[in-house]
Amino acid sequence: MKLTFVIVAIALATAAGLTPKESSAGRKLYLEKCGRCHKFHKIEKYPEPAWNMWLGQMIVKTKLTPAQADLLTRYLQSLRSSHDENGGGGGAAQH
Questions:
Q1: Average confidence score pLDDT of the chain
Q2: CA-CA distance, 43 to 51, in Å (whole number)?
Q3: Whole-model pTM?
Q4: Is residue 8 domain-resident?
Q5: How many helices (H) and strands (E) does the chain have?
Q6: How far apart are CA 50 and CA 41, in angstroms?
Q7: Number of domains, the chain
Q8: pLDDT reading at 17 higher than 50
């Protein structure tokens, strides 16, 4: 199941503009910096402006470097994009 998710997430992220390496690094960064405190929030449940505000607050709280913040933002945006492109049926946002 986890391997399937990783393969699907990488494929979707690649389609959204991330290389497989960036997608893998983004997922790892999410798990290390965000997943320590809470589970993955389903991006599609939040309006984009609210999600972006919340993401910005979390980036500051976790003290990410600018490069880490960029990677994490692009990784999470790729999940939102893949969800939107799949008409709400994308499983990648459901870690």
A1: 75
A2: 7
A3: 0.67
A4: yes
A5: 4, 0
A6: 13
A7: 1
A8: yes
